[in-house]
Design goal:
homodimer, seven-stranded mixed beta sheet, 11 helices, 13% strand, globular, binds adenosine-5'-triphosphate, binds magnesium ion
Chain lengths: 257, 257
């Protein structure tokens, strides 16, 4: 069974999508097969890999809204061992309609279990929208690990309170084994606010935070324009190296479990 | 009747909240009375003015979910002529439940019309969550003008396609007079991606974009920690001046109408 990772934070613009693409690609470099799933109606994950939004025949919307088999929504990407389930704008209606269905929180988990009988992946990464609605709940109910990308700024650090209470709720209602790790992203070491908040996060979350920090790197603004992960756009850039270090730290964490 | 401005973009982290607080405060410096309304369950607008989340007795959630009179939810802030209607986490459920009520898109407009009989403001600014659900639809249905904060980066510029189709939908279904203006935010003039995308935005949107550009300024990372708008935290900073220039450009636009 694949190791499932949800990448979520209610706070917008903290590098959730950038982390899904970069970490996913870095894991394939180590020989792992990786499935990326775009649960955000914005469809930035698909776009960041060069796939136009609403271009695919079968998307995440079909899987969640019409119980379409997940296996049929999987596309290949230009990157070896990296696969994608694209999103569509229609997914926004799932935020509204899913809660009125029974077991709405475990639809994705059931779809992943059915998939595991047909295809096998080493890692599955779920990119979430900046909201704590039913799409994010489905991702957390299905995940072994929640990665919370966090910019070392005031609003982003404050959002961790809501994330912690959401984790408690999902553990109580659907997924007692859900673990979490904070990932500091978009860090500018020259900036006093960033240094101070980063320090506070390490103190408050000690074991619950990755050692690897992703720093600001303008190459990460360029790579989505090229439709490529940073590892393939500028493999020797600082951020490519940092996401490789993150992949390494993650693999060691998973193997220890 | 107050001039109502929605501040919205599906893309997360593009300075929607920072713009609501900064522009609101800059308008009060010109002698206008301003009401800020927090439509985001994250409640960053309230937090950025020093008000703890879920601390208030009556919030936006009571107004939209239980038709509580808007006048009773209004609080004063430390800033003269600047008033606030706070948010609460519960507002997340409004995203799910509102669409099943009749006329769900105009609940906010009706609440604002009832308010105008009791209290008068010159400007009302609505801070929206990073999603195109029923909270944002309510804001667009109630607004004279939609300001779209846009970071000059690939994902943020791409989100404008969805924003344009949402504007067409709201004009057809609820608010034919809705106008829009793009505001370029968090601009780093030394960055090539920022310069190129800014240029493209000016070409594509000619009349639909503010001349004022808000540049990156670390003071805007510090001011929410102090619970103060930038105009009161560091009045002589570059970003305070830029938000004052924006207020001036807006007032001239409104007076021409
Ligand atoms: N380390 C970094 N250095 C510089 N820019 C970055 C970095 N990481 C991400 N970015 C850029 O910052 C912006 C926000 O990143 P991204 O879109 O991945 O965040 P997100 O959390 O997925 O946003 P949303 O909440 O809208 O889904 C993007 O334009 C991205 O290219
Ligand atoms: N011009 C600027 N220069 C530097 N930092 C800025 C600027 N404007 C906003 N910020 C910071 O960038 C982050 C994102 O801004 P903000 O939270 O206002 O965006 P938002 O669009 O409201 O996000 P969300 O989608 O989560 O609601 C915040 O930490 C804020 O302090
Ligand atoms: Mg994203
Ligand atoms: Mg905001």
């Amino acid at each position: 069974m694949a190791y499932v990772i949800a990448i979520s934070n209610e706070k917008g613009g903290v590098a959730k999508t950038t982390t899904a693409i970069s970490l996913g690609a870095a894991l394939t470099e180590q020989g792992f097969s990786v499935l990326l799933m775009d649960l955000d109606p914005q469809a930035n994950l698909s776009l960041g890999l060069g796939i136009e939004k609403n271009g695919a025949r079968i998307t995440m919307a079909n899987v969640l809204l019409e119980s379409h088999p997940l296996a049929e929504a999987i596309q290949t990407t230009e990157i070896e061992r990296l696969f994608l389930v694209p999103s569509a704008s229609r997914l926004e209606t799932a935020e509204q309609s899913l809660p009125f269905r029974g077991h709405f929180m475990t639809l994705l988990r059931e779809a992943l279990q059915a998939l595991s009988e047909k295809r096998s992946f080493d890692y599955i990464l779920l990119d979430c929208p900046p909201a704590l609605g039913s799409l994010t709940l489905n991702a957390l109910a299905a995940a072994h690990l929640l990665i919370i990308p966090t910019q070392p700024e005031f609003f982003s650090a404050y959002a961790l309170r809501d994330m912690m209470s959401l984790i408690r709720r999902v553990r109580a209602e659907a997924n007692p084994e859900l673990a979490y790790r904070i990932l500091v992203t978009m860090m500018d070491r020259r900036n006093r606010v960033h240094r101070e908040i980063h320090e506070q996060l390490c103190k408050t979350f000690a074991q619950g935070i990755f050692n690897t920090v992703i720093e600001v790197d303008t190459r990460l603004r360029e790579s989505p324009i090229a439709g490529l992960p940073i590892t393939h756009y500028k493999g020797n850039s600082r951020s490519a190296q940092q996401y490789r270090a993150l992949a390494q730290e993650l693999v060691e964490y998973v193997q220890e479990k």
